[in-house]
Structure formats: structure tokens, C-alpha cells
Amino acid sequence: MELTKYEEDMYNGEYGEGKAECMEILVSLGKIYDAEKMIPITSAQVSGVSYKTIGDAGLDFVVDLGKKADVTLETMLNPAGVDIENWEELGFSEEFTKKQIDIIKGYESIGVMSTCTCTPYLIGNTPMLNDHVSWSESSAVCYVNSVIGARTNREGGPSALLAAIVGRTPYYGNHILENRVADMIFDVSYDFNNEAEIGALGYYVGQIVNDKKPYFKLTSNPGRNNLKLLGAALASSGAVSQYHVEGITPEAEFARNHDSFDELETIDIDENIIKDTISKLSTTDKIPDLVCLGCPHASITEIQKVAQLVKGKKLVKDLWICTSKAIKAISQQCGYLDIIEQAGGKIVSDTCMVVAPIEELDYEVIGVNSAKAANYVPNMCKLDVVYDTVENLIDMISE
Ligand code: F3S
Predict the structure, then answer these.
(1) For 210-233, what is the mean pLDDT?
(2) Binding site membership of 296 for ligand 1 (Cβ less than 6 Å)
(3) Which end of the chain is least crowded, N or C, by CB within 10 Å?
């Protein structure tokens, strides 16, 4: 692999042992994928934060790395396993929380921003079109490639962190413009009415394309919140890292003008497929004992909508809206937090229904409006899910 003088010096230890180790691993990774060079990156997003998923080995990795090197650019952290401020009120154990705090402190000590969110693009980590970045949470990867048009591979937490330390990533996959064209066309005749339908579309298509790039022809603009849910679903039932929506996402025209576009297979999606997928995403028809929204982490407009829906109501079951601390603070400033809390709901920050040890709490059925959450909760948390719209879920748990 061709390295610049600076990269070679890092590799040879001129800038310290930590950077040399990072370069060695990244160069080896690049060789596996036939990368001809390294490319500078402008930001990183690091997953592998929850103690539930990385355990003591992950904690040791972060602590060891922290003794040798710091990140050199804007790097944000994925959700952790608990709400750091309200863990006790939510029922999480002290032992788990202590381990979680150690992991977060480890990341902070090397300069990572402890934002603990999978929607860093909603709170300031917003790359520009064509920027090269190194992000690792799958829904964030899908969003940044598709909706923003910055370029990242679907990194693992460690490779994103190493890239953040040396400011470089191997140049292969999604970093190369020619690899960002569409692989399959989905002609969607169905007019979407809600987020559960768009999530079902993503879930269905992800199963078909796996890691390929779908190109959607939709009848209307789904908006940013629904594009977030679409990408999360595509990345969970498949391994999609980028999609295009005709007339909406920034590289759709490039994808359409590519030589191979007219030869692509086209699959028609109709109402039956969507309804059938929605029904398969629920594992029970019981009433949820917890409705958990915000997968990916909620935007301020999604929280505003929930506040409007619960205003003046009394919730008879638990309601959590997962988001970042930053969006929670804005919710408080706008008065939404008060409205939601008066109804009996909570805005939960730093974590989510999948990476938190929610299975240790007293819940059996979780209501979600995210196809990604519906896909993961039964497997990762061993709980039943009800998949529906936010309106219907709140109706189910309101007096
Ligand atoms: Fe984010 Fe957790 Fe969903 S990390 S995308 S809220 S599973």
C-alpha cells in the first residue's frame, strides 16, 4: 500500500507507539481489501460502548489504548448500556452502571466526546457531501452515506477508533465513488402514511439486497426522520451501508446516470408486501408494558410529536423516548420534557432498548415504531415486541 511520508512516519513509530499500532492494524485491514492507499478522514463515530455488548474485554481495550494515544479529530460515541444520570430510577443495577461509567471515562480520556448517541448528525457531527469519515453504528453509517453523502465503510467500533487516532482510513469500498452506484431498483407504488410502513419497506428490502445498494423510486418525500428509520431497517435485516432515493438523496442522480443503471433488476413493492411485513415484525398481540421510541435516537421533531400526542393524557404503562443528552436538553427548553413527564413518560438519554440490559427489568412486551428495534429486541433482549405507529402505541398505553 502506498503511504505518504507522514503516514509512513506514524507507521514507523515517529509519532509514538499508540499511533504506530493503529497504523499497523489499519494497513493490514487495507491490504485485506486491496486498498491502494490511506485517506484522511474528517470525523469518526465509535460503536462498541455498552458494557452489555463489549464486556470486560472491551473495557480493557479502551483503557490500554488510552495509555498510548488520543483521537485527533471530531469523534463521537455510540449509545451506552444505561442512562448515566437516571440509571437508578429506570431500574438498572449499580454494578452494571459502574462498569459502564468506566468505559465512558476511558473513551473520554482519549478525547472521544461522550455524546452516547447513534444520531451524531443531529447534534453537530454533520459531515459535508463527499467527506471521508469513519463511522461504525450501522444506522448512522447508512444515514451519513445516503442522506448526507459523506463516505464511510461500515466500520467496527475498534477500526473507527483507530482511524480517529491516526486521522486516516484505508481507501476501499464506499470511499471510492464508483462503488457508490445502485445495485437494484425498488419501484414503490404504495403511498406511505407513517413511519411503521417506511420501516417495513427497509426491513423487507434489506433482506433482499443484503450488503448491496438499493435505489428507491418513491411516490413522495419521506422526510429526514423517516429516512433515518428506513436506513436503520435496511442495515438491520441486511447489511446495507448506503441507499438512494430518486430525487431526494444527494447521490441518486449520480447513481441513475451510471452506465449500468438501465440494466439493473427492478422489483415492484406494493401495499400487500408492506402490510405483510408489518404484521411479521410483531411477535405478540399483547398490550406492551413498555413503549420504547427513539431507534435510532429521536430527533427534536419526533419528541415534539410525542409531546403533542400525550399532552393531557395519563399513560398507564411505561413510555421511554431514547435520545441523546443534547436533544433531551432541547426538549426541556421547548417544554416537551415537562409534557411527557406529566403524562407519565420519560426521555431516556445515553442508551436504547437494544443495548441496555432491558431484559433484567420487569418487562415482557416492548412496543416499538422502529423496524430495527423490532428486529433486534426479541433476539438481543429475549422480549416480545409489538411493532406499530407512534400514534397507535400511545393509544394502547393511554387512559
Ligand atoms: Fe441506535 Fe440503539 Fe437503535 S444504537 S439505532 S437506538 S438499536
Answers:
(1) 97
(2) yes
(3) C
Contact 293 CB / ligand 1 (< 6 Å): no
Q: Is 235 in the pocket of ligand 1 (CB under 6 A)?
A: no
**CB distance 322 to ligand 1 below 6 Å:** yes
Higher pLDDT, 70 or 63: 70
The answer to whether the CB of 139 is under 6 A from ligand 1 is: yes
Atom 3 of ligand 1: nearest residue by CA position = 295
Mean pLDDT of 151-164: 96
- The closest-lying atom of ligand 1 relative to the alpha carbon of residue 119 is 1
Q: pLDDT value at position 64?
A: 87
Cα–Cα distances (Å) from 180 to 42, 63, 153, 171, 258, in that order, read 19, 36, 11, 13, 10
Ligand 1 mean position, distance from CA 265 (Å): 31
Q: How high is the pLDDT of residue 111?
A: 96
**What secondary structure letter does DSSP report for 146?**
I
What does the mean pLDDT of the chain come to?
A: 96
Cα distance between residue 366 and residue 310, in whole Å: 18
For the Cβ of 160 lying below 6 angstroms from any atom of ligand 1, the answer is: no
DSSP letters for 205-269: HHHHHTTS-EEEE-SS---HHHHHHHHHHHHHHS-----EETTTSTTHHHHHHSGGGGGS-EEEE
> Ligand 1 center to residue 137 CA distance, Å?
8
Whose Cα sits closest to atom 1 in ligand 1?
296
Residue 233, pLDDT score: 98
Beta bridge partners of 267: 186
Higher-pLDDT residue of 68 and 321 is 321
Question: Sorting pLDDT into bands at 50, 70 and 90, what band is 59?
Answer: confident
